[in-house]
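Z., the sequence and structure:
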Amino acid sequence: MAGNILGYNSEGIVEKYGDILFTREDPGRDNILPKNNGPCGCNASYRRDVLSLVHGFDPQILSAEDLDIALKIQKNGYFFRYAENAIVYHRQRLTLKELLTRSYTLTKYGMKLISDKYPDDYSYAKLLLGYFLRVPYKIVLYPYVILITPFQEDKIFHLARPALDILVSMSRIWGCISAVAHKVRYNPRKN
């Protein structure tokens, strides 16, 4: 079962950005989450027998463990139903340094291991390419952001968001490069 995660009492630009970046509101079709997209760990529930079947959480996955458990469950023929009234109000409490560290860690120790473990579902090269393409895309669109800012409710956040997108993408690119340089690899024999 998966529910919604909404930002709670976010203070400042970085916390508001974290609410957008780290929350999921995609119920999928017929309130069933799409394949290869699991619930965020802070608002997910699992049946005990299903967790036992997939041998629980993988201790090698240091970040994105919620995605890993979701993939294991889905590969065993189960799905996640989305309960729109199951809402968790979550406060990110992030500084800029914490936001960038979290993005770096997610990419280096989470998505790298996920792509090793599930190569048919996740391509690390495509992930890296996506981060690289996001940077010039945000830079090119910034004049448009400036033009529409007077019509936005939170003008400062609206202007800061593309810059934060670029910083997070750069942090994730660095995480990808670092994972490859430090030979971060999933070892299937440990499980």
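The radius of gyration is 18 Å. The longest helix spans residues 155-181.

Let me know what you think.
H.
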